[in-house]
Amino acid sequence: GRYSVLSTGELHIHSVDAVSDSQRTYRCQTKHKLSSEVKLSSNSGRLIVTESHSNLSPKITTTSRQIVSIVGQNLELLCNCQGFPPPLVLWYKFNEKNQLLERLSTLSEQLVPNPRRVVQIYSSLIMKSLSIDDTAKYVCVCNNSVGQDSTHIHVLVRAPLIVSVSPSHMLVGVGDSVDLNCSVLGAPVVYVMWKRNGKPIQCIASNEWESSASSAEVSLVWDGPHFTHTFPPMEPLVPGMTLSLKCSATGLPLPQIIWTVDGQSVSDNWRLRIGDYVSSDGVVNSYVNITNIRVEDGGLYKCLALNGMNTAVHHNRVVVLG
Fold first, then answer.
1. pTM of the model
2. For 204-216, what is each residue's pLDDT tens digit?
3. Measured in whole angstroms, how far is the alpha carbon of residue 308 from the centre of its chain?
4. Where does the record place it (predicted)?
């Protein structure tokens, strides 16, 4: 109808009537949300309506310039306009680039129930069940045969921020790359940041009114090296023969394999070659090849697999006759 009670407690009367509205007294009544206690104001108010005897250019007295509301709520945008002859009020919606999106008004006042979600009733724009798409600049234009006035209201519709990080838990090895995705629902989102205090990694989204966070646990997997293949004991060798020794190991992180003979590092030369490679199943393979073996090549050969977590050792003696 012609009466609206605003969230501030104010009473808004549309299309004031000089006879009926000026003959009434107005009181406000409050009801306690918890106790349901009802109280009536001790004093009352009266409305004084004066008739215009000359033409008046429209004058908008509404002062609201920005309104923040929440998704799902209803909102009434006021455009209090005075003038004579009675002004015509039109509403327009603009985007953040000041581009006209649509004209919201109809030329006739909406006095009956209207199925539309956004509708003009008298000079007010009624918006039901707000959505994020209702965030915009709304312009009220008030004009009659004498002149025109306009005002604008910025409406910001916000939705509770909900943050989720996926995956929420990861097992990784040292040196691995990690991809975490942070999804944010709600609006407006002013900034998103990642933070790590201790183990959990947090994604935080925030705006002027609230912040929300979600976390992910990234755990390092350590696995000490262990051999999957080692060179076996062997019979004494005759000088001039060829010798091939191989050790294979795995672990997290991948181990490094080094070779020693009688406690000294094995070095490449024209008869001795050391090499290694990693197979597709994550196994490190290392070998020592010796051609035209000599007596001095004999000794206690060791392969050592190291990955910072632990060390695995295998050894066998090589005997060269002579």
1. 0.59
2. 999 999 999 999 9
3. 37
4. Membrane
